[in-house]
């Protein structure tokens, strides 16, 4: 996975060119392939972007040796969470939470959502403007498909927490208009393949809402809920947050989450998870009944083309970028570098070294 420095937005590049066939594990249904592949002849044939015996792990490509995190180095500023969408102009438009002043410890009052662009998700994104002023955080943008039109156009949506919940614009440069709100922590929006808009909310549990027209008052209706397994949060130490929801080209529902273990830290706890736990993956064929992978979808390190591997203390705020076929090609993650700053002291980080957004190529 591609990742660098102390709090940033990074990009991981994913291998979305070929289908990975794995014969080591027998399967009987596509559920045994995490709904990320097909069970054929007793083995899983993984969709592009996924690998492992049960297609549960993102197929991450080694980072270029000279990779610079996607956002936050020029100028040097703390960023934490966001996503990039390819626009009609051929550019990738990133909407990312950045701190107007100081480091991540001030996210509850200094966070604002910036708009930045790049020719490729693996490039450094150049800031254009502030899309939503402070206080706004946990940016999660969407571009409407052709099956979802508002006033005859495919709008851009920008979900977030803070002042308001959702803004709309006709193009990524804005202006952004605030829409009716929903009480929703860390919103995880997605479009169904039929054009219906859904949003998951992590309000102590994970509820999924649907809106037929988000421009109208009281349009959000709860339609489902995800009940995490005991290994994800009922126990004393394991927690789950930062959901990211999407539907693949085959119509399967999926989500990623930041799943972490409070015992993970420095010096190592003899009872902590190995490797350090940073993520979980769930999947469903109807959005109501969910299964959960036993394997984390990615791991807390970045491998480079020259063979180096750099460990990180956490990967949070997961988002994916998809190609025209609906295959995941990049993962955007927020991460911190120093292993000695894991929980319970993880948030007491150096303010000199900023938190930044990383992108990983799949």
Brief rundown of the structure:
With 362 residues, the chain is an all-beta fold.
Topology pattern, helix = H, strand = E: EEEEEEEEHEEEEEEEEEEEEEEEEEEE
* SSE class: mainly beta
Number of helices, where a helix is a run of at least 4 consecutive DSSP H or I residues: 1
Biggest β-sheet strands, sense, barrel? 4 strands, mixed
Low-confidence stretches: 1-6, 339-355
Record field, number of beta strands: 27
N- to C-terminal distance: 8 Å
Mean pLDDT: 83
- As a percent range, the share of helical residues equals under 10%
Q: What value does the Rg take, in angstroms?
A: 19 Å
Strand content is 35-45%
What does this structure look like?
With 362 residues, this protein is an all-beta fold. The protein is built from one helix and 27 strands. The chain has one helix spanning 107-110; strands spanning 8-13, 20-22, 37-40, 43-46, 50-51, 57-58, 79-86, 92-99, 111-118, 126-132, 136-143, 156-162, 166-169, 177-178, 188-191, 197-202, 206-211, 220-226, 238-247, 253-261, 280-284, 291-292, 301-303, 309-311, 314-322, 328-336, 356-361. The strands form eight sheets. Strands 1, 25, 26 and 27 form a four-stranded mixed sheet that branches. A four-stranded antiparallel sheet has the order 7-8-9-10. The longest helix has 4 residues, at 107-110.
């Amino acid at each position: 996975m591609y990742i660098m420095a102390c709090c940033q937005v990074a990009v991981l590049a994913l291998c979305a060119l070929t289908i990975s066939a794995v014969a080591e594990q027998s399967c009987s249904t596509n559920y045994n392939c995490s709904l990320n592949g097909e069970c054929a002849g007793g083995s899983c044939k993984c969709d592009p972007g996924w690998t492992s015996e049960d297609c549960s792990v993102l197929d991450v490509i080694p980072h270029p040796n000279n990779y610079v995190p996607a956002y936050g180095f020029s100028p040097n500023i703390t960023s934490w969470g966001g996503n990039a969408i390819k626009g009609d102009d051929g550019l990738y438009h990133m909407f990312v939470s950045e701190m107007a002043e100081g480091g991540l410890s001030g996210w509850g009052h200094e966070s604002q959502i910036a708009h930045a662009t790049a020719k490729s998700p693996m490039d450094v994104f150049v800031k254009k403007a502030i899309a939503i002023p402070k206080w706004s955080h946990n940016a999660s943008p969407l571009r409407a498909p052709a099956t979802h039109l508002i006033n005859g156009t495919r709008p851009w949506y920008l979900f977030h927490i803070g002042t308001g919940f959702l803004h709309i614009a006709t193009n990524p440069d804005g202006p952004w208009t605030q829409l009716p709100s929903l009480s929703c922590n860390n919103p995880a929006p997605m479009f169904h393949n039929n054009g219906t808009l859904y949003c998951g909310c992590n309000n102590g549990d994970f509820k999924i809402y649907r809106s037929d027209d988000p421009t109208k008052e009281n349009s959000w209706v709860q339609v489902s809920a995800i009940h995490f397994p005991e290994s994800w949060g009922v126990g004393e130490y394991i927690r789950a947050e930062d959901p990211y929801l999407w539907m693949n080209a085959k119509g399967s529902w999926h989500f990623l989450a930041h799943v972490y273990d409070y015992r993970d830290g420095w010096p190592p706890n003899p009872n902590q998870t190995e490797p350090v736990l940073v993520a979980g993956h769930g999947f469903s064929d109807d959005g109501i009944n969910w299964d959960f992978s036993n394997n984390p979808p990615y791991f807390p390190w970045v491998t480079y083309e020259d063979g180096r591997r750099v460990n990180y203390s956490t990967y949070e705020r997961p988002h994916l970028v998809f190609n025209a076929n609906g295959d995941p090609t990049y993962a955007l993650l927020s991460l911190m570098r120093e292993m000695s700053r894991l929980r319970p002291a993880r948030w007491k980080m150096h303010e000199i070294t900023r938190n930044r957004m990383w992108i990983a190529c799949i």
